[in-house]
Amino acid sequence: MQHFKFLTRMALATALAGSFASAASAADVNFLRFFGDCQTEYGTVTDVSKANGECGIITVLTNKFNAENKIGAKVITQTAEWGAFYDQLTATYSTGNIPDVAVMHASVMANFAERDLLTPLADGFKKAGIDTADFVPAALKNAMSKDTLYALPYDLHALLFHVNMDLMTQAGLVNSDGSVKLPSSPEEFISMGKQFKEKTGKYFIASESQSAEGMMVRLWESFMWQQGVDVLSADGKTATINSPEALKAAGLIKSIYGEGLANTALDYPGAEQAFLNGEAGILINGTWGVDNYNAQAASGKAALKNYKVANVPTIFGKSKVWADSHMWVMPKDDKRTPEEVDAALAFMKFLNDNNFQWSRTGHLSVRTSVIGSPEFAALPHRGEYAATAENATALPPVQNQRGVFNAMITDFNAMWLTGAAPADVLTAMQDSVDQILSRNR
Amino acid sequence: MSTARRTGTARTIDLTLLVATIVFAVLWMIPIVWVVAMSLKPNSELMRSTTGFIPIPFTFENYVNILKLATVPLWLMHSFIVAVSMTVAVLAISSTAGYAFARLDFPFKRTLFLIMIAGLMVPEQAVFIPLFTMFADWGLHNTHAALVMPRVAVPIGVFLMTQFFRAVPRELEEAAELDHASHLKIFLKIMLPPSVPALTTLGLFTFIYAWNDFLWPLISATRADMYTVTVGLASIQGNFAFSEGLGSVMASAVFASLPIVILFLVFQRFIVAGVAMGAGK
Amino acid sequence: MSRGVTYAGRRAPGAAFLFLAPFLAVYVIFLVFPLFKGIWISLHDWELAGGYRKYIGFLNYQDLWHDKLFWRTIRNTLYFVALTVPTMTLLSLALALAVHGEGRLKAVLRSVFFMSSVFSVTVVTLIWSMVLSADKGLLMPLWNALGMTPINFLGNQTFAMPSIALATLWWGVGLPMALFLAALSQVPQELYEAAELDHTSRFNKLRRITLPSIRHTLLLVVVLQIVGQFQIFGQTHLMTRGGPANATRTIVQYIYVTGFRDWHVGYASAMAMALFALMLGFSMLQLWLGRRGEDA
After folding, report:
1. Short-list A109, A47, A100, CA closest to A74
2. What is the tally of helices (H) and strands (E) in chain C?
């Protein structure tokens, strides 16, 4: 009898709650992100298959959510420029328009989480039905700080070798099964590079080599992890930069330039241009370029015709490669109502459900179920670098992680820009990084 | 104008200097021509090659994409309001204070002048964060006032006007003084007219400064409906816009600078307007 | 001279107060007060967001004293100021003299040299990075013709700062040139006409009439240049990120990354105060030298 009464009461309560929810006006979700604005192209589109590129896909997904969600939630997108994004996001905590959902790199999240600026999401995810067990371990690790979950991981973007197969064939660096032959040791790297240079007269490697992106620092970090060395300790207090392994890795990179296997003058767009114009065999860049290079190669207008992707090879033993991650966070806002929280979580769930769509940008999906799916495998070139998802490594999510990275670039690049010796460069890097870490609380 | 004949050598030198200036000007324009050319090429083309001053293949799409954005007029409006307000305020405040420093005597004048100059030396970074927290405490972010007020205080205008007022010949004033004209009258009728070139310059460059300001509006006008043109145009760029969307970036740059170019073309003759300084009547 | 008019001007404390009041008001509220607040912040370990504040007295300044990178930035900034201030002043004066005058041609020339100032720093640095690129830059035909490997201007320790100075000159000449033009237009034409009748040489006209007449503006331009170039940020941040090997890391760039990237606002404020002191010293010296000749 009591059981029945309880059930009736529950049913009534749920019905009432349900009617309240639909009676209450739509909760707005203030959504702050970079990736650009493509309203003119995709403003009214809700069919995700029609969208291409980071901007297109996220815009259409947002449109779709707004059109189809059952709880009356409305996502209002605000775009911000990538370079100044964190300045702006940080400012919103003081200017009174804290977003409900924002994008965030894993490399920066620790800063926000440790200052208590993000809302913990573990409970919210459970309620909304987001299964965290489906996430690739590296991605889940990125989303956590001090054992608390603060973000919905959305992708892993890692370093890749983008390959010009025609040039590699000309250089005799293709296996019998058609896959590209990549080095498995530092000595092989240089000898293959020299072979390439001899046979084709072009640069073996193209990479951003000025001071803006630090592409080579990421490669160096990858080489460090391949040797089993943690560049930054997990507690964020010490950095292992001046070490024999570091010297080996730095020495290899210096030789790449020293032996004329790469052009020191290239900046980021220049490196891409060189690759597309058939002036280099391998472009060291990230997952974000796959779609773009694929389209350029297919268009027939570029000198690059036969384009393949490869994992960054295992040069030093372990299979590890640098990766960062785009994630969605909920900045902390005491004025946020429960309805707004629910709406935001519903949006996050929707994004998570459509994780596959995002991986069409070239970024790696973070969900094991998606990576294993046939539709993912059917995406161009994904099979060629699927292993990257497992090899993905990042600096530990500690305070000032990005600051550490940026500090390393200036000193590291001196190796080929000013001819500095690897040992000196590493000492300088250690100093700079120690200075930053000394301020960590 | 002078009626004395120019000697042959003088004319040759004149001509040589002129030609040299013209050549220099042509070289000077090259980067600008390049910007415009790139803005008229499709992004995909620029991914492969950025060389060339002639936009072939040609396209207006970069500009069209900007104009199609519903938010552009809003950004322009914010930028205009801020720039015009700041210019007017700076001109008013600088000319009045500059007159006081240049032509009036009062207690502590020297000290105040030095304090004003010292304010010139305060780097923006020294007051950036304090100003930010101040406006946050007053709840004034995301307003035009927050974008204008901090800049009006910088004494660059006062210093400029002081120097220019100092150079105005005293005879003009002395004549007015004999008439027992009030300070206000002297200021308005005697000091301001010959200073039109200086005022125009100050006004023009304050406008440019306000228009191109990025960092402060970025962190103060954080709501999308308060974006100025610089922040707004930057916000629509996709990641890696400089490699994959170079044409759009260049078009944004040209678009953003057009109002200033127009302003300059209209006002530039005031900068060189020579006022015949008849000595004595 | 009429009665009551001293060199310093007419005694008029009441009127002076009225004329000064607007300026003094905004100056105190929006510059003096924040400056003192900035000093206060520099005595703390203060984070950009999250509310962490801890009073640490002069520890930031102590750390600054021992900060090798900071001293490097001071050297770099002084080098940059030495490169740009004299050059910018001379160039803008020369251009002003060249394009001053009436006529369509002169107006067009004025517009050309001014045009480069209307762009924002992002665009100017982007353009000049591309112009100077050793890969696709404008000088590539020259290198190819000479058969040399292109100089990587922005990646070369010797050439990086001068390259940034070059971009800065192109970008910044507009304002000083306009100021000189305005000053030139204030010079009474009769002086030139009289000199013409005396068959004074061009050079002497410059030396005896023009330069003395625009001395106020000359001082103005030099001081403004010093103030401006000491604070250079955008060009070094966007063109070289302070590299290569910190060759172009300037003070404000270091302040910016310390404050905005690393969130150490207290330390950044201390640096800003140091910069303030440096600029104050420099400019006061310049002003004193400039005014010395005036009080004759």
Report:
1. A100
2. 16, 4
Residue tagged 């040489």 (tokens):
C201
Phi, psi of C175 (to 5 degrees): -65, -55
Burial code (b: 16+ CB inside 10 Å, e: under 16) for B74-92 equals bbbebbbebbebbbebbbe
Distance from CA of A57 to the nearest CA of C (A): 28
Q: CA separation (Å) from B57 to A60, B39, B60?
A: 30, 11, 10
Backbone angles phi, psi at A281, to 5 degrees: -80, -40
Tens-place pLDDT, residues B91-147: 999 999 999 999 888 888 889 998 998 898 898 888 999 999 999 999 999 999 999
The pLDDT > 70 percentage for chain C reads 95
Helix (H, G, I), strand (E, B) or coil at C6: strand
Place of tokens 């001082």: C219
Chains that touch B (3 or more CB pairs under 8 A): A, C
**What ipTM does this complex have?**
0.85
d(C-alpha A268, C-alpha A280), whole Å: 14
Question: Which pLDDT does position C196 carry in this prediction?
Answer: 80
Name the residue of chain C whose CA is nearest to A416's CA.
C155
Please give the DSSP secondary-structure letter assigned to residue B190. Answer: I
Q: Which positions in chain B touch A96 (Cβ < 8 Å)?
A: 139, 141-142
| Token pair recorded at residue A50 | 């029609």
Q: Count how many Cα atoms sit within 13 Å of the Cα of residue C66 in the half-sphere of its side chain.
A: 7
Distance from CA of B144 to the nearest CA of C (A): 15
Q: For residue A69, what are its two tokens? A: 């969600």
Taking CA–CA distances from A271, the nearest residue in chain B reads B243
* A189 neighbors A315 (Cβ within 8 angstroms): yes
Q: Report CB contact under 8 Å: B120, C227.
A: yes
The answer, for C66 touching chain A at a CB cutoff of 8 Å, is no
- C34 prior amide bond cis, ω within 30: no
Number of residues that make up chain B = 281
Interface of A with C in 359-418 (CB under 8 A): 400, 402-403, 406, 409-411, 413-414, 417-418
Give percent of chain A above pLDDT 70: 94
pLDDT digits (tens, 9 = 90+) for C72-116: 999 999 999 999 999 999 999 999 999 988 888 998 999 999 989
Query: Whole-angstrom Cα distance, residue A437 to residue A116?
Result: 20
This prediction's pTM = 0.86
Query: Is any Cβ of chain A less than 8 angstroms from the Cβ of C261?
Result: yes
Strand partners, B251: none
Task: Read off the tokens for A223.
Answer: 């080489």
List Cβ neighbours of B153 (8 Å cut-off, separation of 6 or more).
B119, C26, C27, C29, C30, C31
Residue A86 — very low, low, confident or very high, per pLDDT cuts 50/70/90?
A: very high
Q: Closest to B238 (Cβ–Cβ): which among A36, A88, A92? A: A36
Angle of helix B124-137 relative to helix A85-95, nearest 10 degrees?
40
Residue A111 has pLDDT above 60, yes or no: yes
d(CA B3, CA A381): 80
What is the four-CA torsion angle of B243, B247, B248, B253, rounded to 10 degrees? 110
Q: Which residues pair with A284 in a beta bridge?
A: A161
Q: Is B134 on the interface with C (CB under 8 A)?
A: yes
Q: Are B237 and A272 within 8 A, CB to CB? A: no
